[in-house]
Design brief:
heterodimer, A: 348 residues, 9-stranded mixed beta sheet, 2 helices, B: 421 residues, globular
Chain lengths: 348, 421
């Protein structure tokens, strides 16, 4: 069995374990079932999920890079607190996706630096684009976009990853300072695409739950550790806009480092590209108000952090969401993480 | 056999400019005719010492914005000699350029042109140009990897009439005896090889008429847009003045520096996925989108992009809106409260892909670098919801493929100047 066939089998099979499923059917590639009525302002179970096929997975410059595709998807871009629906266009061939991870640990890097995908055929560029940073109930954090290919056949997909713009902590201090570029072959076949599994969920759609993240060989998932497994001492947890916020405190030479790790409910997918401020109060008096900077570390993974002078038991810390995650969203995430009230915790 | 059959006049002229050469010129003149032009300058020595003094000769729109000519040719030239250029080649080039000036007037209806020289050219003198910092081109953003252009010289020809730009090129290279009834008494084919030929256009209607290339969806560009992205640029208040960009010390006083980058545009997302409001916010400023300040291509803005407090609020908008606009960021690069670069850029369909040839003039290349760094917005990335490209102006929609830096000497030194005149 060729590797691609094996991977597609894995991809198609990986949805089989989902609970509460409704029907299984093939659908025309450029259609999706109607959205559920009364979507909650929260994460919800989508109307359907689609299988995914691996194109390739390679290592370069300390990055692991995975390329995948699925049916064209509807999704929503985010600008400020508003989303903009992107519908499937008749010319769209596939939803092309890329994921980037730390080649050593397999940790998915939800980096704001983004990447560029170039699709070429016989040496000529067919399209080039900076795909949207996205979150999906089944795919977690990835970069993706619907693309139109002129014909079936052999293509080359080139991925250009830039240097990481987030602060790099600990063992990552000297990593990811240089970008990298890789090219892999891709054969577009409508038949192979249409063989991907599609599951619809009937009455379960719209409920306050999500399908699990797809697990694939050669492709790490962007699942953060549970809050109590992050390094440092617990400070508190809270919820805002259906996102879960975990606050940890680490003692460093320059003072306590406050790490804030926002994630989706259920699947613990990181929520990058937010503007967060932390307000520090003691006995009703404000001590400081600082912007939190996005950062990645080998143990804290993706989070937002700031170093403060000192914190004491009983201090109140309030995380203010000045801009919600500017990531695009697949169905099930597009109504959550938009209107986000402050999260307050009291230092134990 | 007619490769131009079925094209509108505007498409046709643009297409022949892109193809170039005497056959294209003949086809262009056959179809569109050669415009009846006044004669050029009887005594070219009366022309301004600044090669880049175009504004006084350019048409303006109803708001006083200078209107760059509609058709452009950029020729990257390699000097054919080894080592330093010869006096004989100097004289030939000067005779040829003066011939163009005698043939047609400077400006939209005639011809505007400049010639500039690269760091590689001055390397022939084992010295950079006197009193001018002319660095080799380099990448100007963490995520770009442009190929540096290193020709000896770059010639920029511009006219509202594509035929005139083509005929000027043909006359310079001896493929045609003259221009507008005037002989051009020397040709530069013995001095220079054309190593690259880049062409393009700017002006209402041209992008929409020439969208049958990759990188822009068919039929998406508004009919009245002067550029592929759908909006006007080069507002008078957002451009450096010619005085501002002119070198003021040393033997090259009266000259300027030129940056030429070749940018690929990828506008499928821009037109198929972004809303009009998102496009306005990303191009100008979130406030422009929220308050609906831009009608159509932005002609209603008058002689400025109306940024007001937007540049000063860049960091604040990044934090609270999760979006910063291209003009908003770029306008932060100022000196004495004035912009520091003068844009003379134009769109292109070279290589059958939507593109932009970004031609800008500034007193020093460092002014361009400063403007580009302001446009990168690295100061807000990492401390706000804005990504390196996502919601960060128009960075998501463009890839810089090539960069080149040049010195445009004053007119009296424009023909193969020594490094230390």
């Amino acid at each position: 069995m060729r590797r691609r066939t094996l991977l597609e089998t894995v991809a198609s099979g990986c949805l089989a374990g989902l609970a509460g499923c409704g029907g299984f059917r093939l659908q025309p590639a450029n259609r999706a079932p109607p959205l559920v009525d009364d979507r909650p302002d929260a994460v919800y179970f989508p109307t359907h999920t689609e299988g995914m096929a691996m194109i390739d997975s390679v290592t370069s410059g300390g990055f692991g890079i995975g390329l995948m595709y699925s049916f064209p998807h509807r999704f929503w871009t985010t600008t400020g607190t508003r989303t903009e629906a992107v519908s499937i266009r008749s010319a769209d061939s596939i939803h092309l996706m890329a994921t980037v991870w730390d080649a050593d640990s397999g940790m998915v890097l939800p980096i704001g630096a983004g990447l560029v995908l170039e699709v070429s055929r016989e040496g000529d560029t067919v399209l080039e684009r900076a795909p949207w940073p996205m979150i999906s109930p089944t795919m977690g954090f990835h970069f993706g976009d619907n693309i139109a290919l002129p014909t079936e056949g052999e293509y080359t997909v080139t991925v250009r990853v830039g240097p990481v713009s987030e602060r790099r902590l600990g063992g990552f201090a000297d990593r990811f300072t240089q970008g990298t570029e890789v090219s892999v072959p891709f054969e577009f076949s409508r038949r192979r695409r249409d063989d991907l599994a599609v599951r619809t969920f009937g009455d379960k759609a719209g409920s306050r739950a999500v399908p699990g993240l797809m697990e694939m060989e050669m492709l790490p998932t962007s699942r953060l550790p549970p809050g109590d497994q992050l390094p440092g001492r617990p400070v508190g947890q809270g919820t805002s806009g259906d996102a879960r916020f975990v606050v940890r405190r680490l003692d460093t030479d320059s003072g306590p480092y406050l790490a804030v790790s926002p994630r989706t409910p259920f699947n613990r997918v990181p929520l990058p590209m937010m503007s967060l401020t932390i307000r520090h109060e003691r006995g009703g008096t404000r001590i400081s108000e600082l912007p939190l900077k996005s950062a990645i570390g080998p143990d804290l993974q993706f989070h937002y952090g700031a170093t403060v002078d000192e914190v004491a038991s009983g201090d109140r810390l309030t995380i203010i969401v000045e801009a919600p995650p500017q990531v695009s969203r697949h169905e099930g995430y597009e109504t959550a993480f938009l209107t986000m009230s402050p999260v307050s915790v009291t230092v134990p | 056999m007619d490769r131009y059959a079925g094209l509108s006049r505007r498409e046709f002229v643009k297409r022949t400019v892109a193809v170039g050469g005497v056959a294209a010129l003949a086809a262009c003149v056959d179809r569109a005719g050669m415009p009846a032009l006044p004669d050029g300058t009887e005594d070219p020595s009366t022309l301004p010492e600044r090669q880049h003094a175009w504004n006084a000769f350019l048409a303006t729109d109803g708001h006083g914005n200078h209107r760059t000519p509609r058709h452009h040719v950029l020729l990257l030239l390699s000097y054919r000699g080894d080592g330093r250029p010869t006096d004989s080649h100097r004289e030939t080039l000067e005779t040829a350029l003066t011939g163009l000036e005698r043939a047609v007037p400077r400006g939209n209806d005639g011809l505007a042109f400049t010639i500039g020289y690269s760091p590689a050219y001055f390397g022939r003198f084992q010295s950079g140009p006197a009193a001018v910092d002319l660095p080799d081109p380099r990448a100007l953003a963490a995520f770009e990897d442009p190929t540096p252009d290193r020709p000896d010289a770059v010639l920029h020809l511009a006219s509202d009439h594509g035929q005139v730009a083509l005929a000027a090129e043909a006359a310079l290279f001896g493929e045609r005896a003259g221009l507008n009834g005037h002989a051009v008494a020397a040709d530069i084919a013995g001095a220079f090889d054309r190593t690259d030929r880049r062409t393009g256009f700017v002006g209402a209607g041209l992008p929409a008429d020439n969208d049958a290339v990759s990188g822009v969806p068919d039929g998406a560009v508004p009919d009245d847009a002067p550029l592929f992205m759908g909006f006007k640029s080069g507002f008078k208040q957002n451009q450096a003045s010619e005085d501002q960009v002119t070198i003021q010390t040393g033997p090259f006083t009266g000259g300027t520096t030129q940056h030429v980058s070749r940018i690929r545009l990828n506008l499928d997302q821009w037109y198929n996925q972004d809303s009009r409001e998102q496009r306005v916010g990303k191009m100008f400023c979130p406030v422009h989108a929220e308050e609906g300040l831009v009608d159509g291509a932005g002609d209603n803005l008058g002689d400025s992009s109306g940024l007001g407090e937007c540049p000063a609020h860049t960091a604040d908008h990044a934090r609270t809106r999760g979006l910063v606009g291209h003009s908003q960021k770029s306008a932060r690069a100022r000196r004495n409260d004035q912009p520091i670069i003068l844009r003379r850029d134009f769109d292109s369909t070279d290589d059958d892909h939507a593109g932009l040839h970004f031609v800008s003039l500034q007193r020093a290349i460092e002014d361009f670098v400063e403007t580009r760094e302001a446009m990168n917005g690295d100061d807000v990335v990492g401390s706000s919801a804005v990504g390196r490209r996502t919601n960060n102006g128009i960075l998501q929609y463009m890839t810089v493929r090539r960069r080149g830096n040049y010195l445009l000497p004053p007119r009296s030194l424009r023909s193969l100047p020594p490094a230390r005149p």
